[in-house]
Specification:
537 residues, mainly alpha, transmembrane helix, Growth Hormone, Chain: A, symporter activity
Length: 537
């Protein structure tokens, strides 16, 4: 009689057989990447519409000043940032509880995102109080980020292959591009059927996006997987955490130290400089562009939506960028994309000041250049990000993908909140007039300020992003060198055997002297069987 190993129902390893812990297929291709990528519609449904339309909605149909609307954005972003900061740690460690092992430390939050996306509908109810809009916005933004962070770590857990991760990032960004296009195109069509004094199309568009996204999130849950932390691995991770914390249990002080320790990695510091300055520019543009079209150029909100729906170019741009980034460095791709955005900023200034004939042609050309540059701006940071935790692993011996995602989202939320509030108060300072009827004229001081923000403000932040990008060295070539060295060390290799060129590249990416790394010295001190569990969890 065949002997079978009995399953121990201890609330731990019995869950290792669940589908969410097992890869499906030998290779991650387009189909599997689609399953992962459709979740990106979650952020479009929760915040994509917000960036383009919500401040305009507040000042046009809710009677709020631009400063009040921007203050709501800032408060929401700060609350969101605080929640996001702890979310990565929660996701990384929820495996310690039975519910986290049963549903997955990443997938439990993906599952929770499906009903949460419906809450965003409450944002678009006209005629309510300031406090109503503040509370609904804060809840919406917190839900978006804390539930998206665990999903963002999946590429790091699903594959270590550079090309497979690039495929996942490319497909994700293609879907995000389609979503952003629809977030402009759908409202533009709805505006044609309703008078400009009606807030109804804003509510309808959110209902449509939320319902569709509900089902897309379920697809992501069913088609992706993550690493299962075994009981044995958990004990080693706990012992390592105690060792790192001087034999003491985790505390607020130690957690804050962990968050700040991410900036020890040079690639992450530079990456964040690029990410924050460029995204700051994108938020400034998206918040102001509809004002620019309506009050500076004198066109309608439908025209603004139509122009922004040119983001359909994101599909070929993202696909092409996904191919090019495997051939050239992210740095070169960054600089090309940012150059296009700078040209578009000059175009906005020219249109506003010169009032040229054939203004729609100038607007279309400027928008196309901006959208091409924008989707390079969107694509490259999220293509690069899954590789940064591996750079950190070389220094720490740990997989801290959730922690890096939390820090990245935390700083990004603060930055975006500041961008929105700066725009709002600059509009108020210029004498911008709010309304509840959907129709109001603006003084010259307000239109001049709008023109300055959409051209000069965007241009300045993009130049800063270009300066950071020129110092970024992570690429397919350098990552492969680092990954090979990390694999060698994980298999018990000695630090003394590192090749000079490998050592140089590792130090260039980490910003840490190779010889000062302590974690892998144990390979020389303990000639035992290779142990790589610390990088799997």
């Amino acid at each position: 009689m065949e002997n079978k190993k009995a399953v121990v129902h201890d609330g731990w390893d019995e869950f290792a057989s669940k589908k969410i812990y097992h890869s499906r297929g030998k290779k991650i291709g387009i189909g599997r990447s689609l399953g992962f990528g459709v979740f990106s519609m979650f952020s479009i449904s929760m915040q994509g519409l917000v960036g383009a339309w919500l401040l305009f909605f507040y000042t046009t149909f809710c009677g709020l000043s631009a400063g009040q609307g921007a203050t709501i954005f800032l408060i929401g972003r700060v609350a969101d940032a605080i929640a996001s900061l702890v979310m990565g740690n929660i996701s990384d460690n929820i495996y310690k509880f039975k519910i986290g092992r049963r549903f997955g430390r990443r997938h439990i939050f993906i599952l929770a995102a499906a009903p949460s996306v419906l809450f965003a509908i409450t944002l678009w109810v006209a005629g309510m109080s300031y406090w109503y809009y503040l509370i609904t916005y804060v809840i919406t933004t917190i839900l978006m980020s804390v539930l998206q962070i665990p999903w963002e770590t999946l590429p790091n857990e699903m594959t270590k292959d550079y090309n497979e991760r690039t495929t996942m990032s490319t497909v994700r960004m293609v879907i995000a591009g389609l979503g952003n296009m629809l977030a402009q195109f759908v409202p533009a069509q709805l505006f044609r059927f309703y008078p400009k004094t009606s807030p109804v199309p804003y509510l309808i568009m959110q209902v449509m996006f939320s319902v569709v996204t509900f089902f897309l999130i379920v697809i992501t849950y069913k088609t992706t997987w993550e690493h299962f932390v075994t009981k044995k691995e958990a004990k080693k991770l706990q012992a390592q955490a105690l060792e790192d914390n001087g034999g003491k249990k985790s505390s607020l002080k130690s957690e804050l130290r962990n968050y700040f320790s991410t900036f020890r990695i040079k690639s992450f510091r530079t990456h964040m400089g690029i990410y924050l300055s460029s995204y700051f520019a994108a938020i400034v543009w998206s918040t102001t562009f509809v004002y620019y079209i309506v009050f500076v150029v004198g066109k309608t909100t439908s025209v603004s939506g139509m122009l922004q729906s040119l983001s359909i170019v994101s599909v070929p741009v993202t696909i092409l960028a996904g191919y090019i980034v495997t051939k050239i460095s992210p740095r070169a791709l960054y600089l090309f994309g940012y150059s296009l955005i700078l040209i578009s900023a000059i175009d906005w200034a020219f249109i506003g000041l010169a009032k040229p004939a054939g203004v729609m042609i100038w607007l279309i050309v400027g928008t196309l250049l901006y959208e091409i540059g924008l989707y390079i701006l969107y694509f490259v940071p999220w293509n690069v990000f899954p590789f940064i935790p591996d750079v950190d692993t070389l220094v720490t011996g740990k997989n801290r993908a959730g922690l890096f995602a939390s820090v990245m989202v935390f700083i990004n939320q603060i930055s975006q909140g500041l961008a929105s509030v700066i725009v709002g108060y600059m509009l108020d300072f210029s004498g911008f007039r709010q309304s509840t009827s959907g129709a109001v004229s603006q003084p010259a001081s307000a239109t001049n300020m709008i023109l300055f923000i959409v051209s000069g403000g965007v241009g300045i932040m993009i130049i800063i992003a270009m300066l950071f990008a020129s110092r970024f060295h992570l690429s397919k070539k350098t990552f492969n060198v680092l990954a090979a060295e990390l694999t060698r060390l994980q298999k018990g290799g000695s630090m003394k055997d590192v090749k000079p060129d490998t050592k140089r590249i590792c130090e260039q990416l980490t910003g840490v002297p190779y010889d000062s790394i302590e974690f892998w010295r144990r390979n020389d001190q303990q000639p035992t069987t290779p142990n790589d569990s610390s990088t799997k969890a």
